[in-house]
Amino acid sequence: MTLHPLAARRCWHTAINPLHATIYFSPDLAKELAPLGIEDPVAVNLASRSAAMGAVGPGTVTATFYNYRHDLLTRHLPAVWDTATPEQVLAARLRAADSTLHRLLGTETVESAEMAEAADLAVLATEGCTRHARTLYAAHADLPVPEAAHLRLWHATTLLREHRGDGHLAALLLAGLDPVEALVSHTATGRGMSAKWIKATRGWEQSDLDAATERLRARGILDADGELTDEGQAVRERLEADTDRLDAAPYEHLGEERLARLAELGGAFVAQATGAGAFPRDLRSRA
Length: 287
Fold this sequence. Notes:
Blueprint: H1 7-21, H2 27-33, H3 41-50, H4 58-65, H5 70-74, H6 86-110, H7 113-126, H8 135-141, H9 149-175, H10 179-188, H11 195-202, H12 206-218, H13 230-246, H14 249-254, H15 256-275
């Protein structure tokens, strides 16, 4: 890898992933799916993210999403596809991305030269992605690229997000972290979701989180206070380093200067969106 080891990771965390993730906390997504008969918040999330794979059942989604409780998924899948088709959901999701970005960034930013530049850079990066063993990325890579610059950017960040995510699953397996252990140890870094959001969106109970915490303590990853030990920090860093290595190709393809520019542009958009209330204040609370 010729780039700085952390350059791609920083761009992904500060620009790419947050731009894509605005959709998950946007009221516009629920508004678009409600007329299709999808109103339960969990069903909205599951349908919108899995639709690119087609009318799949809970087994496929448990495998590809990794950290959702399986019995939560069985309550909504495949039943949601009796309510709306994947094609209808994908169209609604794109409309929601459009309205979300307009609402958070404003028309001037959405139609700016900087937005078009960022979109071109992000799409260029996706040319370095690969499909093999990357189920969610490959499914989304088969979708058409939107014409409008802000939607091209959102589509490209979706591809880059799922490409890294698919590789991250391989790294989690290598690290020996099961779905709940992965969530709990990520929360302990201060960058993961709070227990409140894990329970609300992933379906786990407090007893599941407590049991995972005890397993991590027994392995020396967490201390008595639930904080990462030195070993725990090393485990999480090896996990991120393995993910970086598996996800290096799109950013190597982009190159150092263009990667820095994408991080600059995307980071500015994320700061603007965050200031406009894109994400819940307690999303990463340790409580």
